[in-house]
Amino acid sequence: MSRSNTNRSAEAVAVDQMLVERTAVARLPTRHGEFVAHVYRSRTDGTEHMALVKGELRGRENVLVRLHSECLTGDILGSLRCDCGEQLERALAMIAQAGQGVVIYLRGHEGRGIGLTHKIRAYQLQDQGRDTVDANLELGLPVDSRNYDAALAILADLGIDSVRLMSNNPRKVDALEAGGFRVTERIPLLIRPNPENFNYLLTKQQRLGHCLNLEDDLVVLDRVDSA
Ligand SMILES: [Zn+2]
Question: Do 201 and 188 contact (CB within 8 A), yes or no?
Answer without folding.
Answer: no
